[in-house]
Every structure is written in structure tokens, then in C-alpha cells.
Amino acid sequence: MRMTTITEAIISAALAQHGSSGAGEAVAAHAAGVAEHAGAALTSVDGPMWLGLIPLLPLLGVVIIAILACFNDKSKLPAWISVGLIGVSFILTLVTYLGWDGHSVIHTRLWEWIGLSWGDHPGQTLSSGFAFYFDGLSLLWMLFVTGLAALIGLYASEYMEHDLGLGYCRFFAAFCLFVFSMSCLVMGDNLLMLFLGWEGVGLCSYLLIGYFYKKKTAVDAGMKAFIVNRVGDLGLLMGMLLTFTTFGTVEYDALFTQIHAGTTASGVPLADTWQVWAIPLLLMGGAFGKSAQMFFYVWLPDAMEGPTPVSALIHAATMVTAGVYLVARMMPLYTADPNHVALTAVTWGGTITAFWAATIAMAQYDIKRIMGYSTISQLGYMFAGLGVLATTGGVFHVFTHAFFKATLFLACGAVMHGFAGQLDMRKLSGLWKIPGFQITVIAMLIGCLNLSGFPFTGGYFSKDMIIAEAFVTPDSVIWGSSWAGWLLLLTAGLTAYYTFRVFFRVFVGPVVYEPGEDLHGDAEHFHPHGPKWAINLVLTLLAVGCIASAGLYFVGGEHGWTGGMVHASSAVVETGHGKHGLLFGKNPHEIMFYISAVFGFGGILLAAWFHGPVGLAGLLIGNRTKADVVRMDPIARAIRPISTWAEHKWYVDEFYHLVLVTPLKVFAYLFSWFDKLVVDGLVNLFGGMPKVGSDVIGETTQTGVLHDYAQRMIAGVAVVLVVVVLVVF
Amino acid sequence: MTEKLALVWPEVWLFITTCVVMVVGLSPDLRVRRLCGWIAGIGILVAIGAAVPVEHAGGLFPAITPYAKGMIGVVGLLLLPLLAGTVDRDLDAAIAAGKARFDALRANRAEFYAFFLFSLTGLMLTASADDLIWLFLALELTSLPTYIMVTISTRGTRSQEAGVKYFFLGALGAAIFLYGFALMYGATGTTNLAEIAAAFKAQAAAGGINPIGIAGVAVALVGFCFKIAAVPMHMYAADVYQGAASGVSAMLAFVPKAAGFLAIIFICGTVGWDHGPTYDALPAPIYILLWVIAVATMFTGNVLAVRQTSVKRMLAYSSVAHSGYMLVGVIVGPGPGGSFWNNGIAAVLFYLLSYGITNVGTFAVLASIQTDSGDEADEIADIRGLHATRPWLAGAMLLCVLSLLGLPPLVGFFAKVGLFTSAIAAGEIPLVIILGVNSAIAAFYYLRIARSAYLEPADESVSTGPTPVPQRAIAAVLSASLVVLLLVVAQPIVERSVTASGYSPPEVGLAQDGPAQTLTVADE
């Protein structure tokens, strides 16, 4: 590229000398433009080998814990090993981040993983190293993945203590395996590494959702998660294969260079190909599957059957953001399409999911499920952010969401732990007044404020960046982008409502509780037990993390710390700054702070009015005095069809069952008959032939008599000689 | 002479070890006698160490020795614990009980290990062979000890019967290939393989290889079919494998087979894979011969294995079938070289290693189980429900049969893939299809073993227990773990097999001058 630049500069200088200044200026401007772009590209540095320890230490943990399981260990050792090794991984990530110059890609190649070649043409060599790619995006992801995993591992050491022994080992082995897979997914320097991690996290998710494998709902939920993800993975896989056939490589560096050059491996201009919109759409399918968007969302609420630390880490903070990571990582591919087909799909997929899931969350009673739907909804925000080219906003929201959603889940988990599995908001109230739960309540409050976008919390800033950018991005670039903005804004209000619905009903108000189904012993003498030091410590740290994440908006440049990180990665998008659309005659970035604050307050006030308890805790407008009687009830009865439908998740599961599962079952039944009659019949027929042949030959040849054998050997030689003579002469 | 000596250092080491073992095994002290196995192991290790550094040996396959001898050593090491406790157990028990006194004439331990080492020595010498006489002597040194080992391996009459059959038929086989050697000598006037190759080349350039020479090669190849248990020389396999102790059967399935394949590769090398209309195949008679033998061997082995109720006979016929698979690689030949995927010889060499290791595992499992009558397990009924009683052995059996079947991702799969891809690259599509069909037939009986061990309950009428020789179970588990572990290091091994398969055919015109000779007794 540099050669071209210099050549063009020389040509332009020559043209200028010859007096044809107009053409010369044009070429010179072009040359300058190219130079600028080349300067903006990320430089590459070789990283040290010890970066490999970041994923491999958790993998070591898996091995050690498996060995402990063989010795039937009954201590908390697996937890300490996990927390220790993942903690070291976090520290190594932190060291890498601190040593990073802020604008390069760190490459570390451990070994050649796959190297296949069947020709010399482009696209006939598939090579993929077990190698890592550290730019701002992967560093940011790794920081919260390892950091949160260490903290949540510590939380789980106490949370899972009822299951010491093999179950405990199983949990932490899968936990460590998850961290390994997630690290491969994020740190990998090619799509194959990403795929390895992608499938690995899927497996761990399955293992951990089905952790209580004696409970049918948990087993079913695990299978559902796995199967739904398979459908999405098909898209990812096809996208990867198409990427390879189109660009001849799956390694990010080479891929981005190729996309940057604007041609396929065979030299066709990229904009003219169908792959330019097909690949991003297929990859989006994979991303939507993993991140539970659109048609794929059904698995995530059921995944709440897993232990709460799993819900917090895998199904809220990290794994489900893998889809967001994929889209962000592949941003050059998404923006290469001049019509932005895939980006529009991402925007609207995310927006509709955000709204849809929020409506369902409003009608649920299981507080952990509400958090599950809220996760789907917030993931929708992230995708919408990426779709409207607000990569920084989307990624920032991933980061803040990781903290506040982990906090919320872990607080719910502390409730579940203390009340023998009780999660129904109609049976719990006034936790604030029950001894031992104060830290939980405070952490919950901080998490709720973040989730509902209360001014000056991390969630407030990150969500605003997305919504504002939706208004900024012209509708001509992303179809209906401002309408998406309005829908997202409305959803922000709904989010505040359902979030504080939980808070006002469960955490404040009159003290009411009933133990859940995990109760061992007498319900009459049940006493809730507050969390101990590990859970309290983790909740405190996470709550502090939530507050601190807001500060990231203010440090490090125009778009905060995240902006800097995204800018030093493949996810950077050059948006048309200075060409802002106007909203109510103002700059959307500024006015959005006020508008979304209004929506947030509105949602909280509505929640207080409908669900808040009497007194200050209900913001003086609530009137609830019992756990299960609220002002909302008559309204819910009045709009019964709608509220029932929302409570039953708009019957999407039932719909899928009718249009997908039932026909498949009928087909399976038919095919099984075909299989039994035709396929098995053929197989048995062919299988019987060797057996018959065997009997015939065997009877005649297996005599065991020495001279028979010798005769046949000689006969064989005779036949050979005859054949040779016949062939030669 | 000294150059040749440098090449046979591993054999020299093995021979010295053999002598030591023979003497040590005569000690009246049981503890000293027990050292035999350990000394043999150390000797093999030293031999491997001496074999690996050799780089270029000259001849038609200049680089084959390090790989071949390394492979022989590794499988030999695996066989060693499996052969432990085959002889002298009754005698030792009687001495321990005070019922008998040590009698050097009645004790067989020293001979047994010594013969094993002799056989390995012969096998390694086969790998170093560059001359027909040398090749014949090496092959006989490989085989002669095995006749005795078969005979003394159990105290029953069945092994004596097996030994006699094996000896007579073996002698017949040796006579046949020696006759072939004689014809080859008659057609070329030399016994040196490289010179024979050069002479054949010159004849081919001058209008056609001497028919006597072709007949010699063909007869020699048929004679080698005895070593590798291929049609029409396969009949003995089932009877002999069943009659011998499992450890010895395992050895018979690898040692003579490896010797036979090395010899076949060498002899095929003399006529070369550059004949035929497109100059990429063996001469037509040899090609047709090997093609027919390969196909007949595959079908015979697999089809007959299906009806067996004795696991050992089943494994014997499966060993026949595996020879058929490997012959496909020989037919394909070294190909254009450079890659494992189009090189039939490299595929055969890798297959031999994979088969040797896996095969030790299956026989070791059988050897580790003892029926009530004191015999080793043999019938399918003996391993029913093995999963419940001895899970480690059942696991080892499962891994080994799946690898023999060629199920990914075990090492047997990669070995078979090499055969498939090289045959496809050479355009031998009918052979590939036949290979595929036979792999499918093989699934029937291999999976039956797996099913018996895992899914069926133990027969109540059959009661089995562990053999009082724990080393055998260790050999089983070790082989099974290698079946998995070899995948991790498959790349360097595959690369070595590619190097080893390097074929350097003589240039036309050399026949008159003759290449420099180091050790030849060809005298006209």
C-alpha cells in the first residue's frame, strides 16, 4: 500500500508540474487520503509466550479438579483452585493491558494448530495457529471475563457449599473449562479459535444449566439451550466457511487486510459480490443464537435453571455477549456492505428483542427469570448499538451490563440461597428488615439503578450512547434508525418499571417470606439465613465495580475509556461526526441525557405507584402492605388477555412447539419406520452376505489339517505362475 | 564393511543382550532369573537409541532403517510385558512350594526371552537388508525362533500342534520365496537389490524385463504372503494364533508381518513403480498379482473373521485382513513423495506401527484374563461383561478394537486415512471402494467384541479372573493409551514415515558399472 501511495504522490507531482493542476490535485488528495488511512491502521507487535497462560491456567484447573474428583475430594479445594488460577489469569490480563501501548495488536502464536494445503492458489491453504490477538476489544473483554469469573468463582465457593464432593468438583471443573473456552473465543486470532471457544462455552453452558441433573426441568433446559444454539451455530459455521471461500483466510489480520483492500481473494471487487451481505447475515445468525436474540431467545430464560453463579457469569455477563463480540470483531465485514443490509438486520433484531423481552419481563413473578429477560433485552440494546454504528456504545454497554447484571443475579442468588430456593416475588417481601440481607439489598439497589438507567450510573451513560447514536445515524444509512431509537427509548422506560417492580416488592416493604422448594425440614421453623463473608464480599466488590464503571465514561478521551479501547481495535467505525441529525432541535448526544432520564424516572415512579410499599421506601406514593396485593392487580385483571400472554412469554414456546417440534416429531416417526423397514433391511441384507460367505468358505477351508493347508499354498503358487506366464507372454 | 557395521549396531546390541539374557536365565536364584525381562527391555531401548541416529544407509530405500527399527523397538518394548510369565510359571510355583528343584534343562525362561530378542534382531536385520541372501537369512532369523516360542508358549498340546503346523508351513513358505530369489538371481546375475533394480531397469529400457525375473519377483512375493498371512498363504494364521499363548500370538501378528512387508517393499522396489503405460505403477504381472492378493486377502480375512466365536481366531483373521489393507499401500507405491497423503509406502509404514501397538493391546487384554481351567481368555464368552468386572481392561479393549476398526480420532483412523488418500491420489478407485467395503465388514466383528465387553452381562457359566501376571494388564492399558496419545505426536511420526519411504531407484545404465558394494557375496 505504501508503494502505491508513493507512486501516486510522484505521479501527482509530475502532473502538477505539467500544468494540468485539476487532475493533479484530485490524485494528490486521493494519495493523501490513502496515506491517512494507512496511518490509522493498527500496528502489530509480537507478544510474549506467557500470554498463553491466560487460557491455559483455567484449563490446568480443569485437570487438577478432575484429579481431585477421582480422589473424591470433599473440601472446598476445587473452588480455591479455580479462583486462584482464574485470578492469576486476570492479573496476567491486567499486566498485558498495562503493558499495552494503546494502539497496537499484540500477536502471540503458541503453535501451528491446523495447516492444510491442497494447492497454491489463494483459498487452498487453511492455516490457523493456536494464536492470540490482543487489541482493545479483546483486552476489554478479557478484563471483565477473567475478573468477573474470579469474583463469581469466589461467590460460588459459598453458594455451592451444600453440594461438596463430586458435584462441587463437577461445577468448578466446568466453570474453569468455561473460562478457558471463553478466553479462546475472545483472544483467538482467527475464526477457528473463535469457533473452538464458541462451541466450548456452549458445552459448558449445557453442562452447567443441567447441573442439577436429577431435576427434569434443568435437564430439559440444558438440552433446549444446546439445541437452539446449534441452529445459530449453523449460521456461524456457514459464515465462517463462506469467509474462507471468499477471502481465502480465517485469520483476522489477513482477513481485515483483504476487506480493507476491497476485493475477494480472487480479485473481484467486494461490493459486487453477494457474499458481502450474506456472510455478515450468517454470522449474525450465530451471534443471535448465542446471545439469545429474536427467534433464538427462548433458551435463555430456561437457562436460569442452572445454579445462580452460572446465570450471573455465563448467562448474563460473559457468554451471551459472545455474539456481540463476534459482530464487533467482524465490524469491517459489516461495514464493507455499501447497503448495510446486515447492519440493518442487527439493529432491528436487537431493538425488537429489547422491546419484546422487556414486555415479558414486566409480567413475570420469578425474580431470576425477570433478570433473564432483562438480559435478553439489554443484549438487544448492545446489538442495536452495533447496528447503528455506535460500536463504542454497544461495547460500553457490554462492560457496564456485565457488572450490574452480575450484581443483580448474585443478589437474587443470595435471596435464593437464604430462602431455600424461593424466587416468587408474591411470596417474598421486606428483605431489608431481615437480618443479614442488608448488603444484598444495597447491592441490588445499585444494580437496579444501573439497569434502569438512573442518571450518572454506568448503565445510564452506556444506554444513552446507544440511543443517541440511533438518532444520529441517518435513516439513509441504517433503515429506520431513528424509529429504532424511539423504540429503545420506550424500552428504557419499561426496563426501569420492571426493574423497580422487583425491588419495591421483594426488597422493601412489610416482612413476608415463605421458604422455597429446596427446604429440608420443617416449614414452620424456617429461618432465612443471610449470606456469609464470601457472598457479601463479592456483592460489595461488584457493587463498587458498578459505580466505578460509570467513571469510565469520563476518563480517556472523547468517548471515554471504552472509546479508546474500541478505537484501537477492528471494531472502530468512522462515523460521520459533525453531520449530526437533530432531535428537538438539539444535538441528540446532549438532549438524550435529559430525555432518557425522564423515561427512567417515569418507569421508577410507575413501579413505585403500582408496587411500592407504604412510606418512604415506596417513594411516598406506594400503598402496598402485603406481599401479593398491589395496585397493579386490578389493571392486570382488566387487560387480562395481554397480561396473561405476557406472563406466558407471548406463547412463543408453544408456537415453536406447534410449528417446529410437532412436525419434526411426525417426520421422525415416519423416518423411523422408513429406517426400520428399508434402511435396516438393506443393511441386514448386505450384512448377511459376508456371514453366508463366511459359512461357505469357512466350512471348506478351516479344516485344521496340515497337508490341506500345504496343498492350497502350493496351488496358490501354481495359479500365480500360470497368471504371470499368461500376462507376460 | 565398517559402514555396514555402523548400520547394524542396533542388531549387535540386541545380540549381545540376547547372550546376556541366556546366561542370566540359567541362574538358580529366581530373583536373578526375573531380571531377564528387564535386561531384554534395556537391550531394546539401547537398540532404539542406536537405530535412530542412522541417517543414510544407501540402497533402494536409503532412509528406512531408523523408522523401521524404531518402530520394531517400540512394539518390541510393548510386547515384552505381555510376554512376561508365559513360560516357567508352573515350575517356579513348584520350586517355591518345595516340590521341585531348579533344573536348568527344564527352565525355559532364558530361551523364551532370548528367542524373542533373536526374532527382533532378525526383524531389524530385515530392515537393513540390501541383498537377497541377507534378506533371506534375516527373514529366517525372524521366523525360526517364533516356531519354538509358539510350541513352548503353553503346556497344552494345542500349542505343540500349532508349532508343528507353523514350522512346516513356514518352511514351505521360505522355500517358495527362496525359489523366487533364485529366479531373480538367474535373471539378473546379482543378489544385490540395487543392482537387481538397475538390471531390471536396463532390461525394461531394452524392451522388457526378463520373464524369469518377473516370475522370480512374483514367486518371492507369494512366498512373503506367508509372513504377512495373506492369501493364499493365510490358512495357518487362525490355527497358530489360537494355539499359541496370547502374548506369542500378538508377537506373530506383528513381527513376521513387519518382516514380510519390509521384504515385499524391498522386492517391489527392485522392479519399481515406474512401469505401465503412464509410468506410475508396478509392472503389469506384479501389479495384477498384488491387486488380486490384496483384494482376496481383505475379503477372506474379514469374511472369515465374521463367523468366529473365538476372539483369538477372529483377531487372526482380522490380521489377515489388515495385511490386505496394507498391500493397497504397496500397490500404490511411494508416489510423487513429499507428502504423507499420496505416499503408499509411508502409509504402510505408519500403518504397521499403528497396527503393532493396537494389536498388542487386544491380545494383552485376552492374556490378562484367566478362565477357570487356567487358560487365557479366548472365547467371546470369556470377555462378556468385562466392563463390570475389569473396567480398565474393557476400556483398553474398546479403544484398541475401535482403533483397529479405524474409528476417528484414534490412531488407526489416521493410519487408514493414509492408505485411502494415497490410493485415491494414485487413482486406484476400485481398491479404495473395496477397502471401504471391507472396513465396513470389519466393523461387524470388532463392534461385537466391544458389545460383548460393554453391553452384555457376563455369562454365568463362565467364570474368569485375573491372570497372576499384572504386567500384561499394564501392557494392555499402555497400548490403549498409546492408541490415543499417538494422535498428539502423530505429526513427527508421520513425517518420519514419509522420510523413511524415500525410494531412490537406480538410473538406467548403471547395470553395467554396478554401484559401489559394501557387502555382497554375489559371485558368478
Structural topology:
The complex is a heterodimer of chains A (729) and B (524).
Chain A: H1 2-17, H2 21-40, E1 43-46, H3 53-70, H4 77-98, E2 104-117, E3 125-134, H5 136-159, H6 166-187, H7 191-209, H8 216-247, H9 252-261, H10 275-290, H11 299-302, H12 308-317, H13 322-329, H14 331-336, H15 341-363, H16 367-387, H17 391-418, E4 428-429, H18 438-451, H19 458-472, H20 481-507, E5 512-513, H21 533-551, H22 560-567, H23 588-611, H24 632-638, H25 640-647, H26 652-701, H27 706-728
Parallel strand pairs in A: 1-2
Antiparallel strand pairs in A: 2-3, 4-5
Helix pairs in contact in A: 1-2, 3-4, 3-6, 4-5, 4-6, 5-6, 5-12, 5-17, 5-21, 5-22, 6-7, 7-8, 7-12, 8-10, 10-13, 10-15, 12-17, 15-16, 15-20, 15-25, 16-17, 16-19, 16-20, 17-18, 17-19, 17-21, 17-22, 18-20, 18-21, 19-20, 19-21, 19-23, 20-23, 24-25
Chain B: H1 2-7, H2 9-24, H3 30-33, H4 35-51, H5 64-83, H6 89-96, H7 109-128, H8 132-152, H9 157-188, H10 193-205, H11 211-228, H12 236-243, H13 246-271, H14 284-306, H15 311-332, H16 344-367, E1 369-371, H17 386-389, H18 391-405, H19 411-425, H20 429-454, E2 464-466, H21 470-485, H22 490-500, H23 510-513
Antiparallel strand pairs in B: 1-2
Summarize the structure.
Chain A is mainly alpha-helical and 729 residues long.
Give structural notes.
The complex is a heterodimer of chains A (729) and B (524). Chain A is mainly α and 729 residues long. In chain A, the strands form two sheets. In chain A, strands 1-2-3 form a three-stranded mixed sheet. Chain A has a two-stranded antiparallel ribbon with strand order 4-5. Chain A has helices at residues 2-17, 21-40, 53-70, 77-98, 136-159, 166-187, 191-209, 216-247, 252-261, 275-290, 299-302, 308-317, 322-329, 331-336, 341-363, 367-387, 391-418, 438-451, 458-472, 481-507, 533-551, 560-567, 588-611, 632-638, 640-647, 652-701, 706-728; strands at 43-46, 104-117, 125-134, 428-429, 512-513. In chain A, strand 2 (104-117) and strand 3 (125-134) form a beta hairpin. Chain A has 27 helices and five strands. The radius of gyration of chain A is 30 Å and the shape is globular. The N and C termini of chain A lie far apart (68 Å). With 524 residues, chain B is mainly α. Chain B has a domain at 274-504. Helix content of chain B is 70%, strand content 1%. Chain B is built from 23 helices and two strands. Chain B has a two-stranded antiparallel sheet. In chain B, helix 15 (311-332) runs parallel beside helix 19. Chain B starts with a helix and ends in an 11-residue tail after the last helix. The model of chain B is unreliable at 509-524 (pLDDT under 50). Classes of the chains: A mainly alpha (729), B mainly alpha (524). Chains A and B meet through helix 26 and helix 27 of A and helix 9, helix 11, helix 12 and helix 14 of B.
